[in-house]
UniProtKB/TrEMBL annotation:
It comes from Nakamurella leprariae. Pfam families: ADH_N, ADH_zinc_N. Residues 15-327 form the Enoyl reductase (ER) domain. InterPro entries: Acrylyl-CoA_reductase_AcuI, ADH-like_C, ADH-like_N, ER, GroES-like_sf, NAD(P)-bd_dom_sf, Zn-ADH-like_protein. CDD domains: MDR_yhdh. PANTHER family: ACRYLYL-COA REDUCTASE ACUI-RELATED, SHORT-CHAIN DEHYDROGENASE/REDUCTASE. The lineage of its organism: Bacteria, Bacillati, Actinomycetota, Actinomycetes, Nakamurellales. Signal peptide: none annotated. This is Oxidoreductase. GO terms for molecular function: acryloyl-CoA reductase (NADPH) activity.
């Protein structure tokens, strides 16, 4: 039986690098697909899981990592065949299903999406949950009616993070004017290089305002921060605009008034990537292949070995990681 390395949460303390065999992989009990995992990625939620800061894993031992990409080895699901390049994000990977910090896994076929032409497993993980979420936000705004000729720019908060970086690159490619909000001045040049037309300090949005309606600045917004930042984004969005809310980097509360909704017809669009249905995921991956410039993706991502996952988990929680980190499981 072949050994392979994995990052495993045991329920006490931080997750550890362990050596596993196929006998350690649970039987999914439904259309099992064995995947040679070549790459995973690092997300904020992975930081919480690997450090043990929040109870992400529901049972132990649990292979951590909410994302994975690789090649199908064997499949009892007729939708997949050996050699298919696949990606899985969310769906409880690293929570109640084995996650992506492993060289090999066995998962139910329903969590896998076939990669579109133009995106290989490494780039799929440069995108990962964060990039998929960014595209889900863009799709939600488009479905609401947003077009590049709308008056005002599209605000992206938490711009130097993974979701923010991918959102900027996609919106810019689609022809939108993009205002990036970031608390890290050292990232401003890179945000402009990704396509931001304007960069503002996040303090401009994070202070509470006593005005439930403020000057109309944004055609739309993608918010990864929540709390007062989301409240201010809503209060500054133009008539009939929309805000796609996906994150809580600044807090899970929402100290807002209903006035933007009932006087400006502003829409608040909730975005979840974890339980997102497969057809929506397929649409998002195919749009990422079409609308995310791969040179921009390469510029915002770095590749790290699996042995560095424990250190990187601490760093992402401390806000010290910019862009996307791909984990090479080999
Ligand atoms: P990152 O850690 O890569 O980026 C988060 C960014 O938020 C940071 O880079 C920083 O941006 C900003 N930020 C951090 N702390 C604060 C603060 N206290 N106040 C204001 N801004 C802050 O995370 P991701 O991009 O991967 O994820 C962003 C958010 O979206 C997270 O809350 C995550 O949990 C959530 N998320 C939700 C998903 C869903 O399905 N709904 C899926 C994926 C992520 P800067 O330095 O530019 O200021």
């Amino acid at each position: 039986m072949t050994d392979f390395p994995a990052v495993v949460a045991t329920g006490t303390g931080p997750a550890q690098l362990r050596t596993l065999t196929d006998a350690d992989l649970p039987d999914p009990g439904e259309s099992a697909v064995t995947v040679a995992v070549t790459h995973s990625s690092l997300n904020y939620k992975d930081g919480l899981a690997v450090t043990g800061t929040a109870p992400i894993a529901r049972s132990f031992p649990m292979i951590c990592g909410i994302d994975l990409a690789g090649t199908v080895e064997t499949s009892t699901d007729p939708a997949f065949a050996p050699g298919d390049e696949v990606v899985a994000t969310g769906w409880g990977l690293g929570e109640h299903l084995p996650g992506g910090y492993t060289r090999r896994t066995r998962v139910p076929g329903r969590v896998l999406t076939r990669l579109p032409d133009g995106i290989d497993p490494q780039r799929a993980m440069a995108i990962g949950t964060a990039g998929l979420t960014a595209m889900l936000c863009v799709l939600a705004l488009e479905d609401h009616g947003l077009t590049p000729d709308a008056e005002g720019s599209v605000l992206v908060t938490g711009a130097a993070g993974g979701v923010g970086n991918v959102a900027i690159a996609v919106l810019s490619r689609l022809g939108y004017a993009v205002t990036a909000s970031s608390g890290r001045p050292e990232t401003h040049d890179q945000l402009r290089a990704l396509g931001a037309t304007d960069v503002i300090d996040r303090a401009e949005l994070s202070e509470p305002s006593d005005k439930p309606l403020q000057g109309q600045r944004w055609a739309a917004a993608i918010d990864t921060v929540g709390s007062t930042t989301l409240a201010n984004a809503l209060a500054q969005t133009r008539y009939r605009g929309a805000v796609a809310a996906c994150g809580l980097a600044g807090g899970a509360d929402l100290p807002a008034s209903v006035l933007p909704f009932i006087l400006r017809n502003v829409a608040l669009l909730g975005i979840d990537s974890v339980q997102c249905p497969t057809p929506v995921r397929e649409r998002a991956w195919s749009r990422l292949a079409a609308d995310l410039p791969m040179d921009a993706l390469d510029s915002l991502s770095t590749v790290e070995p699996m042995s560095r996952v424990p250190d990187l988990a601490e760093q992402i929680l401390a806000g010290q990681v910019a862009g996307r980190v791909v984990i090479d499981t080999g």
